[in-house]
Amino acid sequence: MPELARTPRTSRGSIARRMLSAAVAATGLVAAMLVPVVATDAAWNDSEWVNGAIGTLDCSATEGFTSQATGRVLSGSLLGESLDPVAGLSGIVVTNDGATSSVQPASSTALGADAYNSPIALNAIGGLVSAGLGLTLPLETGTGVYAQYGQALPDGVSTGASGVVTDQGAIDADAVQAGTAPSMGTFQLSQLPGLGAALGGIADLSLEVGAVASSATVDGCEEQWSGAANAVQRDYLVAGLDLGFESPAVAALSATADTAVGTLLTGLNTTVGTVEGLLRTAVINGLTPLLAGLIDNAALSLGTVTVDSLEITLDPTSLNALLDAPLTDGVVSVDLTSGTVSVDLAALVGDVYQSSDGLNGLAPNTSVLSSQVMTALVERVGLLLRDPATQTGLLYDLERAAAKMVLDASVAIEASAIVRAQLTLITVDAVDVGVTIDGNVGGFLGTPGYPAPDVDVTAAVLNSGLLGLLLAPVNALVASILTSLEPLIVSTLLPSLATILQNSLVTPATGLIGTMTTTLVSAVTTALGALDGELDLVSQLVAVTVNSQPDQPPQPAPPYAIADGEYAVSALRIGVVDGTTAGAASLLNAFLASSTAGPNAS
């Protein structure tokens, strides 16, 4: 990707843009009007439309112009105290008296062609503020170094730049795209004194800022001749910006969801207990005639049929996992377990403002936390929770998971029976019969995708030494049980068990799931309304602006004191108020990656 600023200059360049004397002023004016303005192809390029005076002057001279440029990574105020006096945060100021350039701080590195750099380590910023003001900046900085660049030429051209910029004062787009550009860090806004009370229950409000940069260039001669529209170029970059906070609305929804799911499980467990009793009776009543029908010898009789164990097991793991898993559409994420919301503002703002490059390429002084953006955020959260149009979202997932949990419920039955033999003097146990039925509810009901229950029958001869002449009939009965009882169970007993499961478990479960859904639909509506109020409060207390330019409407405050003819741009401005002083950034007024160029004059 090409660099997005001018390289250090030693002369003005195109002679076609020069006015040589008053005698050709009119002709020169026409020529100047016909010269095309060539813009960069940067997505964050900003065209200026500022009028300036038109006069006659000699733009062919390569010196004689005073010029100035500045670059500063961080400026503004903290708790009402200006960051300007903080040593190490003053950035770089390069001036030219028309012949030679000078720079502050004197320790800046000369790059040649009247250009200088005063780099600053990001992890040193907090310490500088603490040492200079005795205040803690709520910024967990990233690691790496940002440039503070300035070039002031004697021909009236100056460039200021800061942040992720090259030694030529260009925004280093290649480093940003490669992912090697350092991020600014995270502003823990909730740590600002007084903000917590103003935010009510909102906690851990933070802004994670990615790589930032800005660049401003002014051609002083062209500005005086044809105005700033052709003379001023300002570029900026905000590579990433994430908003995060703990939401009382989300926490309340989480609590309601936990309760609703808990109520569902309690109701299902109660229902299961009832169904297990019904199934026990049905198994005894079903097996007894089946076994009795297989006995065809008067000396043999059926003893008691017993259900040794019968258990229906619900597994709520998948259901509970839905409540624990963060919800995300790739732009907005909601974590019910922690009650937190996180937002990729670059993606969200890009979507709202239809910017293909996220936070870049936007008009001067674009509000990031605008009502349109906040509304879009709430809408996205709503769709994550429930989207009736596509029947997706958490509530639909919970409904489906609960219904599947019921169909997946395992049904395990173990039953036994004894066939007795009447001998001459005594009655003895002759055959031990065992029946196991294993499956799940869906299988009993014949639901597609579920296997049929597994039925296993065992039969063993008991007391064979005592049976005498009855041994042969007993062996025949065992063979009959092993070959005939299982098909009889499948054809007669399983359908009766399926009817019980449908009428006494699945149908009541459907009602319980419906009650859960109704509760959650109401809770989601309430939560979205509360979240909308929370975001409205955040946007009242916190202002975030990209491409901040103090000379453009609505003319915000500059990052630091600037003079007439000095053109400023800050990549990002974060302002935080305490809720008591309307319009004033009384707690924090941070300008990130600020640059100015000018005033430049002959």
Explain the overall architecture.
The protein has 602 residues and is of the alpha+beta class. The strands form four sheets. Strands 1, 6, 7, 8, 10, 11, 14 and 15 form an eight-stranded antiparallel sheet that branches. Strands 2, 3, 4, 5, 21, 25, 26 and 27 form an eight-stranded antiparallel sheet that branches. α11 (394-408) runs antiparallel to α14. Residues 1-55 have low confidence and may be disordered.
Shape by Cα distribution: rod-shaped
* Biggest sheet architecture: 8 strands, antiparallel
Unreliable stretches covering 5 or more consecutive residues: 1-55
Helix-strand category: alpha+beta
Give the strand tally.
27
Radius of gyration: 40 Å
Strand residue percentage: 25-35%
The number of helical runs is: 14
Residues in helices, as a percent range: 25-40%
Quick recap of the structure?
The protein is of the alpha+beta class.
